[in-house]
Amino acid sequence: MFSNKQALLFDLDGTLVDSVGDLHTAINTMLDAFNAPSVGEDQVREWVGNGSLRLVERALSYTKNVDASFKTVNLTTAHDHFLTAYSDTHHANTRLCKGVKETLTYFAECRLLMAVITNKPLQFVPELLEAQGIDQFFDMVLGGDSLAEKKPSPIPLLFASEELGIPIENCLMIGDSESDILAAKAAGMQSVILSDGYHQGMDVTSMGADAVIDSVDALIGLVNDSSN
């Protein structure tokens, strides 16, 4: 389906790893610091996908809606609490999504370039990739604060294309949320969305991706290696 692809650009949370366990822990640690009630893991799963600041903002807004006695908290202060709490998890409850290691190994053997383009702050990404044993597969890693803008801006995708030396038409964006697909569309890049990821409750079939797959390993049947 996708011919002549030479570079695969992957989102991280919900695409390569399921990190909700640690994000849930960090959110509740942050909320507890401000005497706010805890939230469930399923709720946090619906908030992931637009970076840590937006995650914290959603948590505070939700808490205010369900608890009228909750006093307004400065977003920057709350975000700092969250980042510290998330760092303290050391990604203990983060796991690879289905078929990730096998898929990355396959495309590495095909000599396709691969990059991670995530909205997660960069400070957490190398440790997470190393902990999951997949850091060696990536030629580039961009976090949400690596450039002036993050997804859904096309800037990270355009930057990756230029730095990797691969034309836009030979790159493919793989993600699980609307921000991934909007970024790809704005960059003029084809995209794939995973049905099993973090979608903020949206219907993935309505996002306009070029293909919908259930898990990352389905890419093997869709991407034709141009080096063969």
Describe the structure.
By secondary structure, the chain is an alpha/beta fold. 39% of the residues lie in helices and 16% in strands. It is built from eight helices and ten strands. Strands 6-5-2-7-8-9 form a six-stranded parallel sheet, sandwiched between helices. Strands 1-10 form a two-stranded parallel sheet. The radius of gyration is 18 Å and the shape is elongated. The mean pLDDT is 93.
- Per DSSP, the total helix count is 8
Order of strands in the sheet with most strands: 6-5-2-7-8-9
Give a count of the beta strands, DSSP E runs of length 2 or more: 10
Uncertain regions spanning at least 5 consecutive residues: none
Strand content: 15-25%
Assign an overall shape.
elongated
**Average of pLDDT:** 93
Level of helix content? 25-40%
Radius of gyration: 18 Å
Largest sheet: 6 strands, parallel
Distance between the termini: 16 Å
| SSE string, helices as H and strands as E | EEEHHHHEHEHEHEHEEE
Specify the structural class: alpha/beta
